[in-house]
Amino acid sequence: MTGLSNKTYQPSWVFRSPHINTIYPHLFRKRIRISWDRIRISTMDNDFIDLDTRLSGSKTAVVMLHGLEGSSDSHYIKGMSRALEQVNYDVFVMNQRGCSGEINKSYASYHSGKTDDLDEVIQFIAHTFNYQNIVLIGFSLGGNICLKYTGEKGETMNNRIKAVVAISVPCDLSESAQYLAHRRNFLYMRRFMRMLRRKALLKAKNHPESNLNEEEINSCGDFTSFDNLYTAPAHGFDSAVHYWQVNSSKQFIPEIRRDTLLISAKDDPFFGPLSHPVAECENNPFVTFEQPAHGGHVGFAQWNLSKNLWHENRALNFIESKIYEYD
Fold this sequence. Notes:
Elements: H1 18-28, E1 37-42, E2 48-54, E3 60-65, H2 75-86, E4 90-95, H3 115-128, E5 133-139, H4 141-153, E6 161-167, H5 173-181, H6 186-206, H7 214-218, H8 223-234, H9 240-247, E7 260-263, H10 278-282, E8 287-290, H11 310-326
Parallel strand pairs: 3-4, 3-5, 5-6, 6-7, 7-8
Antiparallel strand pairs: 1-2, 2-4
């Protein structure tokens, strides 16, 4: 594990509250304006994935994955994109199925461990463009997908992928579901469930054969009920518990064979100690795990939101150091 001596996020006193740190950037960082160019790719199962891009002819492409019900419009995606453009990297934001402003075609959607879609995106980029380097950056759910994918691939990972960055990752999905169901996190859960129920109602309307009904959907108040009703059966899992067990990224970290940076604040309100895979990372020289005492969930905030946030600069430094090793 890499030491944190000169890399630790050190916030002012107000941002030592994990909830303020989580919410402040979400509320006040929306002024970042980015004009995306969209590429739609067709998937093997006749669905589609929308990539929002900023391309300038760089030799390095960064593929970013957002969190649950996020998109290319999420403040943390726009902030990281702006930081990446400062060093002239091309940016591809992978909008998960149904997250680009248009519901996807199939009954299935996306989930915390759906790595086959990421693999299709990487293959598309590798075959369509002539990048020397590809980097993956995932936030929260997207970070879980990146870690799981990198561990699944192991030594067979596309050799253009030089580095992986995962930020605020619920590496143990069962624990995270329990944490977010706690009453102290009811604002987060209420927001997530409102968005998930809205999409599930569209799925029920577009796929009447699914036998989903409005009453069942509207009764879902947490991840356990929603994942049992929709996520697990729609994606081939026996139950919510089975879905969480199979897709938690912590179990894949020992097999990672690409330089990977994992950043999770110790005070992240979305998960607890089981999602801080200290032992797994200590035993894998490819993985650097940094645990600032503060930071909230994809927060790492500061008063001046017009500048790069701490995690953005840390990601840039890590990426540049790894790409430099290959040049």
